[in-house]
Amino acid sequence: MTDIAPLAASARSRFGDPGVHAVVRAGRTVHAVSLGGWVGGEQVPELLCRTGVAGWSPDALEPTRAQVTCARCLRRLGRNPAPDRQLPLFGQD
After folding, report:
1. Are 31 and 24 in contact (CB under 8 A)?
2. Domain map of the chain by residue range?
3. How many CA atoms lie within 13 A of 52 on its CB side?
4. Residue 20 and residue 85: Cα distance in Å, rounded?
5. How far apart are CA 89 and CA 25, in angstroms?
6. Hey, CA dihedral for 38, 42, 47, 49, is it positive or negative?
7. In 10 A of CB 74, how many CB atoms?
8. CA pair distance 79, 89, nearest whole angstrom
């Protein structure tokens, strides 16, 4: 069996500083990050909104210092995201 502790520690170190958030692969949405349980009781960074990441691996999350834009993450942080504006379907609704 492979020891995954070094992989988990590496993932944690990439997101350990305050203000470091995540994008999934080359995505545009910026998510807040928290630590969550992983294989073997290890703690690794995960998206605060708990959005699933297909084929998840610690390398799927890229660190960024950009502001969080995920509406679900913002709600979990206690911040109200900007209200969505519904586009009119037929001229002036």
Report:
1. yes
2. 5-76
3. 2
4. 29
5. 34
6. positive
7. 19
8. 29
**One pLDDT digit (tens) per residue for the chain, 93 residues:** 468 899 889 989 999 888 999 999 888 999 999 998 888 899 989 999 988 887 767 778 999 999 999 999 999 999 876 666 666 667 654
Element (DSSP H or E) covering residue 37 = strand 33-37
Q: How many CB atoms lie within 10 A of CB 3?
A: 9
Q: Which amino acid is at 58?
A: P
Integer Cα distance of 73 and 40 in angstroms: 26
pTM: 0.78
Q: Which residues, listed in sequence order, are joined to residue 35 by a DSSP beta bridge?
A: 45
Residue 33 burial (CB count, 10 A): 22
85 three-class SS: coil
Q: How far apart are the first and last CA of the chain?
A: 62
